[in-house]
Structures are given as C-alpha cells and as structure tokens.
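Handoff note, outgoing to incoming analyst
You'll be picking up this chain. Sequence as last confirmed:
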Amino acid sequence: MPHRALSQKRPYLVLSVLAALAYFYLQATNLPGLYLIPIKGSAVAFLALYAWMRHGSRDARMLTAALVFASLGDMAIELDLIAGAVGFVGFHIIALLMFLRHKREALEGRDSVMFIALLLGTPFVAYLLPYDPDMKPLVALYALPLGAMAAGAWASDFPQMRVAAGAILFVISDWLIFAEMGPLSGSPIPQYLVWPIYYLGIFLITIGVITTLRKRDPELRVVKGGAD
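Most recent structure output, in case you need it:
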C-alpha cells in the first residue's frame, strides 16, 4: 500500500511551512502589517496543532503549550517588544521543564562545555549586543531562560542534531534581534535572517521531540481524530 502524501498524513505541518513561507515573502509586499500578524502567528500555531495531534503524552502536551506561547509571542512582538518577550519566556520555561524530564545521566567533555556555553554564554552575548545601556540588562534578563532552554535541550536525551540544533538556532535568531539594537543597526541582515532561522529552529525542536516520543511510546502516538 503506497504511503499517503505528506499533506494527508501531516496537514498541520504542511500548513505551518506554508504560513512561514507566506509571512517571509509577504513582508516585502505592501500588505498592511496588521494582516501579516495572524499569518505569522499561524506558522507556529500549526506546529502546536501538529504536536497535539501526533502524540498523546504529557511531554507532547507540554510542547504544545510551549508552542502556543511562542505563537502568541510571534504576534505580540509586532505590537510591543516586551509583550512579545513575555510570550517567548513562556515558551522557554515550558520547553525547559519538558527537557528536564528527559535529561541524560551525565554530561562529559564536549557536551559539558557546550552546556555551560549555552547556559552562560547566551545571556552574556545578549548583554554585549545592544548599544543602549538601558537595554543591556533587559535583554540579558530575557536571555537567561533562553540560554537555560537551549542548555536543557543540549543536555536532554532528544536527538541533538534536531532538538538541540533547533534550540541553538532559536538563540542565534534572538542574538540577531539584539544585534539590530547595536552592531547590525540599519543592516538588512536581521530583516532577512531572523524569521527563517527562528522558524527552522522551532520546527526542528517540534519534529525532533514528537518523532522521538512516537518511537518511545507508540501506543500514545495517535490522538483520537488525528491522522497517522
């Protein structure tokens, strides 16, 4: 029996990618910003639906909640930077709690160095990037849970090439936002790179976590009403 098309098996995943691409390209048009906000938010909102429908575990529910916060942050940041940051902090905290439920026994060598670099280096670099001294402590404060989330992803037993890599991309996208307040002020680099790097990061986290959960707990992998 041939496999069903991706759009039939994982429609929310396909819709998420389409929304992410639509937002990226529509930014260059004359479409009013208010119309772009729900398109932007729907990209991660569809990932949340994907996580909810693909597995029935507590971890999948936690990931879904984290993604809902990220989606709200995506939309809120277009109106207010602080409101957007609050949404993303919600993502970082819930994702970190989920990663802590799957932490590896011990970290050694390169893994321990990378863990410390993400945990401490993320807020340190964030602090250095803005030129405005009043912004430095604010972005560093935000970057504390960001770094903890990324370090937690690295220390978890989820696949590093997906989940930890996705968390690192999330960090890089936020660094680019902070750099726009400093050395990249006036540069088109953040405008073109922040969204694709961020979306790819959160996409990899979602796919990596859900795929792993489905392999470990196959009896919970199909939620009633979902497509397998």
